[in-house]
Every structure is written in structure tokens, then in C-alpha cells.
Design a protein that fits this description.
alpha/beta, CBS-domain, 2 domains, three-stranded mixed β-sheet, 11 strands, 19% strand
Length: 272
């Protein structure tokens, strides 16, 4: 049986692929269909749209170009954690008018560095016209297998992980996440990590589906945990996130929870 090109010339093929991935442009990974909302809409409406579409942000409509951006983190920190009613808070009151923009011709590396430096999603603009949006999830799906991504997860993971019990109320956990500006908590059962509750679970499973914030967090948590080990490479962790459609991975050392790593952490590792 004849050998494939990869078997015959592995180094050449791998180097070509890595080089190709490094030089991919933002236009090849961005989401072209951008969800938008009116600035006078309520944050409850915004949350339902994000939950329905499984996304974490909405651009706010403006006369010629987007007037701003509102995110799931805004809902947590500026509405729920502030004891405000999402049905009464308008989008314009909590949105960020500052957009972090990038051109479609920028490389993945440039996008990663801009995202980490400016701390936000990237709005892709071409000649003052909206072309798309790039999130951390978009970037990790395209991280090349390069020296930068061979760095191990333990160097970038967060070691202090917030946790809760299964019978805690969703509202209390949402407030906790908002105040601490975190996107998830680990749910423990019988003293062991059992599941995870994320800001995306809040949007998709609770708000969009008409659930109650007074119900217990166990009902809406994601389980079993999709976990990795500290010696996973950044590239392997990114592939795991992309394959499982998640944005954060608990890191276990043996049977013990050692930390958690997010999509943004992986982008930061690649951007350095």
C-alpha cells in the first residue's frame, strides 16, 4: 500500500499546515451573521436573544454603524449583581459604547493580541461597514499547532475555582458570578466536583427557556464535567473546547480539581 504524503513527508506537510494556520485572516474565522438589538430594548429581551442563539453578545443598532455592544457579562455584573430587574433595565444603560475593531485582513495572531490587549470581542469593520465579529471561541477553533500553543495548560489556568452546592439558588450564583466577574462555578456533590454552571447556562437554560432564578442551580448545571489535565498543551485544550462546544474546562490532577482554563486564557497564551 502506498504511503500518504503526510506519512512520506510529515515534516513538510506539518510545517506547511502550521504556516497556513498562522497566516489565516480574520475574514476566514469571523462570524458574518451578527446579532443586533435596539438600544431601547430591555436587558431581558437581550438575554433571551443571546440565549436563543447561544451567543454571549449583541451589537447595538446605530444610525450608520453599531452604537455599542452588550454582553452576558453586562447582564451579570451591571444588572443581576446590582439587584436590578432585567425587565426594567434598558440596553443603552449598560452597553459599552466603545467598540474594539479590527480589519478582515488582520491575521489570527493580530486578532488574538488585540483581543487580550483591549479585553473584549472584536468587531470586524471594512471601510466603516460592519463585516462580522470575532470571539474567543472563534479564535480557539483556529489556533495553529505551533510552538506557542505547545505550552502546557498549567501555566495559564486559574487555580482558585469558585464552587457551590447543588441546592444553591440560581439567583444567588448569578449574583456571585457578577460580583466576582467570573463566568462559571463548579457544583460539588458529596464533596466532589459534579457539574458546572456557566453564564451561558443562565442565558440558554434559565432565561430563554423561561426558568426561574429561584430554582436550584443543580437543575440547570452541565454534567458530567468535561475535564483535562495540567500537562495538556494549549493546542490540545483548544481542540477539546472546539469539539465539545464549551468555553471553559476544569483541570484535574488525579482526582483533585487543580484549576480551570477558559477560551480567553488560551487566546492569551497564543497572543504572548
Amino acid at each position: 500500500m502506498s504511503k500518504t504524503l503526510r506519512e512520506e513527508f510529515p515534516s513538510i506537510i506539518d510545517v506547511f499546515y502550521q504556516d497556513f494556520q498562522k497566516h489565516k485572516h480574520v475574514s476566514e474565522i469571523m462570524s458574518k451573521e451578527v446579532a443586533m438589538i435596539e438600544e431601547n430594548a430591555t436587558m431581558l429581551n437581550a438575554a433571551k436573544i443571546m440565549g436563543k442563539r447561544h451567543i454571549g453578545s449583541l451589537l447595538v443598532k446605530g444610525p450608520e454603524r453599531p452604537a455599542g455592544i452588550v454582553t452576558e457579562r453586562d447582564l451579570l455584573t451591571r444588572v443581576i449583581a446590582a439587584n436590578k430587574d432585567p425587565k426594567k433595565v434598558k440596553v443603552f444603560a449598560v452597553m459599552s459604547p466603545r467598540l474594539i475593531t479590527i480589519k478582515p485582513q488582520a491575521t489570527i495572531r493580530e486578532a488574538a493580541r488585540t483581543m487580550i490587549k483591549e479585553k473584549g470581542r472584536l468587531v470586524v469593520m471594512e471601510e466603516r461597514k460592519l463585516a462580522g465579529i470575532v470571539t474567543a471561541s472563534d479564535l480557539i477553533r483556529s489556533l495553529p499547532e505551533a510552538p506557542e500553543t505547545s505550552t502546557v495548560v498549567s501555566k495559564f489556568m486559574t487555580r482558585q475555582v469558585e464552587s457551590t452546592t447543588p441546592n444553591a439558588k440560581v439567583l444567588d450564583i448569578a449574583k456571585k458570578m457578577g460580583k466576582k466577574r467570573i463566568g462559571s462555578v463548579i457544583v460539588n456533590k458529596e464533596g466532589k466536583p459534579w457539574g458546572i454552571f456557566t453564564e451561558r447556562d443562565l442565558l440558554t437554560k434559565v432565561i430563554y427557556m423561561g426558568g426561574s432564578l429561584d430554582e436550584v442551580v443543580e437543575k440547570y448545571s452541565s454534567t458530567p464535567l468535561i475535564a483535562i489535565e495540567p500537562d495538556y498543551s494549549i493546542h490540545k485544550a483548544a481542540k477539546t473546547m472546539a469539539a465539545k462546544h464549551v468555553r471553559r474546562l476544569p483541570v484535574f490532577e488525579g482526582n483533585k480539581l487543580a484549576g480551570i482554563i477558559t477560551a480567553r486564557d488560551l487566546v492569551e497564551a497564543y497572543a504572548l
